[in-house]
Amino acid sequence: MRKLFLIAAVVTVSACATPKAQIAEGLTGYGVAEGPAKCVGERLQSNLSLGQLRELGRVASATRARDPDPSRLTIDDFLRAASEVRDPQIGIEVAKAAGRCNLVPLGFAPAKYEMDDA
């Protein structure tokens, strides 16, 4: 419960902090290194409108009851919440920000290709 509330707080715009600062602060509070957290915040602020950031926060709040482990935030959780937003650009931008900021989802395993020597 706490995790998705944080996501909502992270992307909710307030007068005292920029969206990128709120996103970065929220992510670092859950163990994301400061550099990647700031990177994600900057990218999302640059590529999403305030309305889109609010929508991401709204959807994250609505999905909090389904969260199996509200005590920690992973990039997987953030990507899952973003994928539930009706605006596809939001999910795309969150995924791009995660990738460009070196946040690899825990469920991601690169494909292994074996070369045939024949």
Q: What structural category arises from helix and sheet content?
A: mainly alpha
Please give the number of β-strands.
Answer: 0
The number of domains: 1
Radius of gyration: 15 Å
Largest sheet: none
Nearest-integer average pLDDT: 75
For the terminal residues, how far apart are their CA atoms? 54 Å
In DSSP terms (H or I, runs of 4 or more residues), the helix count works out at 6
Uncertain residue segments: 109-113
Strand content: under 5%
Q: What's the helical proportion of residues?
A: 55-70%
Tell me, briefly, the overall form: globular
**What is the succession of H and E elements?**
HHHHHH
Describe what you observe in this structure.
The chain is an all-alpha fold. The protein has one domain. 59% of the residues lie in helices and 0% in strands. It has helices spanning 2-11, 19-29, 34-47, 50-62, 75-83, 88-100. Helix 1 packs antiparallel against helix 2 (19-29), helix 1 (2-11) runs antiparallel to helix 4 (50-62) and helix 3 runs antiparallel to helix 6 (88-100). It is globular. Mean pLDDT is 75; it is low at 109-113.
Q: What keywords describe this structure?
A:
118 residues; 6 helices; 59% helix; single chain; mainly alpha
Annotate the secondary structure layout:
Elements: H1 2-11, H2 19-29, H3 34-47, H4 50-62, H5 75-83, H6 88-100
Short description:
It is built from six helices and no strands. With 118 residues, the protein is mainly alpha-helical.
